[in-house]
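Predict the assembly for these two chains.
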Amino acid sequence: MNLTLHVWRQQGPDDKGQLERHQATDVSPDMSFLEMLDEVNEALIKEGREPIVFDHDCREGICGTCSQVINGQPHGPQAETTVCQLHMRQFKDGDEIYIEPWRARAFPVLKDLIVDRTAMDRIVEAGGYVSVSTGGVPDANAILIPKDDADTAMDAAECIGCGACVAACPNGSAMLFVSAKVGQLAKLPQGRPEAASRVCAMTETMLDEGFGNCSNHYECEASCPKGISVKFIAMLNREYLKALPKLKSK
Amino acid sequence: MQLMNLFRSSVGRKLFMACSGLMLAGFVAAHLLGNTTLFAGSAAINAYAEQLHKLGPVLWIFRLGLLGALLVHVTFGIWLTLQNRAAKPMGYAKKAVQSTTLAAETMIYSGLALLAFVVYHLLHFTLRKVGLDPSLFSDAAGQVDVFRMIVLSFKQWPLVLLYTGGLAALFLHLSHGISSTFQTLGACNEQLLPLLRKAGLVAALALLAGYLSIPLLTFFGLVS
C-alpha cells in the first residue's frame, strides 16, 4: 500500500519545527510501523536527505523507548500497543498519517520525533524506590504478601515509563506514571516504610519538572500501551491523604 | 508546615478543589430542597425564608463558609488551569479524543459562567439590586413576599432564559465535577469509576431538572 505521511521535523530544541510531507510506497501490511519508517529513511538517505529521527530500542513492546503520536493518539490507533508493535495492517492504502512527537513542556523536543524524557527519571529518583541499606539476603516467603496485593503491585509495575500518558493528557500531567510508580511499592510491605515521603516527594517533583495537574480526563489510561488503570491515580490520592498526618515541616 | 506541603503537591492542590467543590455541590443540593417549598405555595416558601433569616449568626457562619469555599474553588481553579495550560504549550496537528468529555474540557468556562451567574443571582434575589422594582413584591413595611418575587420574576422570558443558561453551566460543571471529586478523594477503584461517572451525570441531571422546574413551571403558569 501507499501512504502519505505528515511527519514533524525539527532540527533541534531551539528550532521552530514544522510538519513535512513524505510518501511511503509499497508498504507491506506485515511491516511494523517502525519498519515502515526505516524504509522511508532508507529512501531519504539514498536521496541524500536527512532521515527522520525517532526513538526506538527493543522493538518488542517492553522498553518504553518508542514515542510517537500517530493521528493524534500516542502509540497510534491500536489499544495497549506500543508504536513498535503497531503493524501496518492497521492502516489502509491511501491513508494520511500524522506523526508527531510527545507534546508537553516537561518533554522538550530534541530532534524530529525524539523528546527528552529525563524529567520522568528525576521523578523516580525523588522517591520511586525502596531503601535497602544492609543485611543478608532475606528468606524467601519470610514476608507474606496477599495474592491480590501482589497482583495489583504487578499491574502497576507493568508501566514501562514511555510517557504516553503525559503525551495524551490535555494538561501534560504525569499523574498516571507517578501513580503506577507509587502504586507498585505501596501495595508491597517493603514499600510501606517510605510510603509517606515517597508520595509527597514524587508529586512535588512532578510539578517542579513542569508537568501539569490531573483533572480526570482519563486520556492517559486510554493511551497507555500497558493498560495501566486510573484506579492507581485514586490510590495515589489515598496514599497522599494517608501521608498528610505524617509529614514533617520543611 | 502541613499547609505548605498541601500547596506544594499536585495532589494537595487537587484536594483543595475537591473539598471546596464538594461543599459547593452540597449547598447546591440543599438550596434546591429549600427552594422546592415554592411548589407548596406562598405561605410555605415565605415561612422557609423567614426561618432561614431567624437563624441569624448561624446563617452568617454558613454564608461565610460558602464564600470561603467559593473563593478557594475559583482561585485554585484559575491557578491550576493556567498551570495546566503552561504544561501543554503545544497541541497536536491532528487531534483524537479518546476518553475525555466536553464537560471535562470546558470546566474553566462552565465554572466562570457559573460564577457570573451566581453573582447575578445574588444581585437578583438576595440583594435585589437588579431585575424588578422591589416595591412590586414588598409591603409598606419593606417586608418581602418571596413567593411573589419569584413568580413575578419568572413571568419574564429574558430572566427565564438567563436562568436556563446559568443552570446549563451548572449541569455541565457538575456532570464532570461530581465523579471527579470522588476520584480525587481516592474513593474510587476500577469497578466504582464507571458507576461514579454515570452516577455523577445522573445527579447533575437531577439537579438540572429540579432547578429548571422553578423558572419553567412558573413561566408556564403552573405556579401562581
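Chain B has one domain: 2-219. Residues 2-219 of chain B form a domain with the 3 helical TM bundles of succinate and fumarate reductases fold (CATH 1.20.1300.10).
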